[in-house]
Protein 1
Amino acid sequence: MLIILFAFLVLAWPSPVAAQQSSCADCHFADPRAPGRDHLEDWDRSAHGRNRVGCEKCHGGNAATFESMLAHRGILNSAIPASPVNRRNLPTTCGTCHAGPFVAFQKSMHFDLLKKGETDVPVCATCHGPVGAERPSPKALEGECAACHGPKGVARRPERAAGARVLYEGINESREMLAVAKPLIARISNRTRRAELEAMYQQAEVPLIQAVQAGHEFVYDNLAERLATARRRIEALLGQLANPR
């Protein structure tokens, strides 16, 4: 009898895999009456969706059940100040996973204004969308900046928006140049030489990453400096690849 009871408990108890499986999106996709369809589809196409970062990571709730009342327990509407996806709390919520950008953003004037109650300042969703599915183009970024800093904005500095666009165009161009270098390095048959070039690649990549982080501070002097360093190192790397020993 004890053996039968034990077997029943093992079968009835949810496995660790099942417990970790998020059912939020599955349930909302299955129910045509569920709200926020566009939001759900954006998540499904995002890096979060592809990597199974479930809705509960930001919204809360219980993703291990299909029981509606239990699944939605503790979820707060974004308009409620205590909600983790309220505009004032969103940087902290995103920062639980994206620590680097959050640390940089905390150094910005925008973050100081947000803490003081100003909600019109940019937050993560301003550039990356509500589910982090977007990486804005330099032109789109210029438009976002111009909303406040353009000729008709509340803090008019139109040169700021235009300058940000130029810098982010430089970041994209540098990324493309590094992307060209990577397969060329992989083709080098001499292991010692390949290791040297891989080290150069990494040394070029670091300031480029730092430039992106500086962008989250909205301190574009720092971004320009790191971008210039990255550009010099990328050009040196490409020069080595174009003129093999």
Protein 2
Amino acid sequence: MAFAIKPKLPVASVAGATTALVLLTALNFVNYIDRYILPGVQEQVKGEFHLSDAQIGSLTLWFMVAYMLTSPITGFLGDRFPRKPMIVVAALFWSGMNLFTASVHSYSSLNLRHAALGVGEASFGIFAPALLSDFYEPDQRNRVLTIFNIAIPVGAALGYLIGGTVGEHFGWRASFIVSAVPGVIIALLIAFFMKEPARGASQHEKATLKKGTVLSLLRNKAYLCSVLGYAAVTFSLGGISWWMPSFLQRIGGRSQASAAYIMGAITVVAGLGGTVLGGIIAQRWSRTSAKALYLVPGISAAIAVPPALICFFGPSWFGTQAYTLPGLAVAIFFIFLGTGPVNAATVNAVRPEIRATALAGQLFLIHALGDAISPRIIGVVSDHSNLNIGLASTLVTMLLASVIFFVGAGYAPPLKIDEPAPAA
């Protein structure tokens, strides 16, 4: 099988690696369910609190502000302390925040709750990839992180479905209660069954944090290109994911549940297909070229632009909505095509002793420059023109991402070994 993973570890360690991959992928799945509940019910939220599109867009802004402010702290902790207990605590915390949403009755309280949710999710987003990278060697990480990231489209799709369907029948607060339970269950499974690997174990060396090593990230061009390219993609994907359910309701005249089902189906089929195919292509290509982990997301970002353009403007250009959903599906497919490779490019570009810090830096930048601001920017543009034009702003950053990834390919490090850390 193309995605069979055989970490070069003792049998006991192989079992531990597999357990970690399964449980952390499951928790990532729940993570994205929780994140995409709100877009599925945001038209209900907008109506109840009498909000503008800019205010709706600000809900994700505060989530990302907390997400970003937490990341330097969690990166510091992740390079110095065991990550397993912190993952468990993070999952229990964000599940509790979902339950808290049932008691929210003001826009400011909803913003506060959404910000708190970002704290828990930021912790997991840093610890999990770093922990998995200590189980699997560099030439296996593209496959592992592709599997881990399969949870993104599947979880997002179910988030849309739970939000739209449960919200339409039982009110939008009930959607968050339903989503809180799985996170608690998986957190407990991790606490009892997952092992903590030693830092640097997959590279058969002891990871030691030295003076100047963290600052070396600022001189690491391979790392910077992977992160900045990912930030540009995140701007686009975050904006499209947030506003597309509303777009389908306003432009297409669909009900909330119908828009949620459509967005969920497209996300899970196109997103899952793109994630898997992108990982396979990058894995095979990387056998002959280390640049593959940058070229795959670079090419896919550029190809996603034309179908997205047709999705946003097809009804006005062609006088029909027949091209809206096919255009959306093709665009989502190619955006997700680069998900696994770009994450593998990031972890392979850095030393194991600063991997959590590097991932924290990635998390901070992709959200600060990406989906922390894109929903609000789209909302502001929509308030002054229309949602079609607002969504079109995401196409500029897709092209920018493509350019950055192509530049980054020139700095791609070898996949088999990690480069030594630069001198302080």
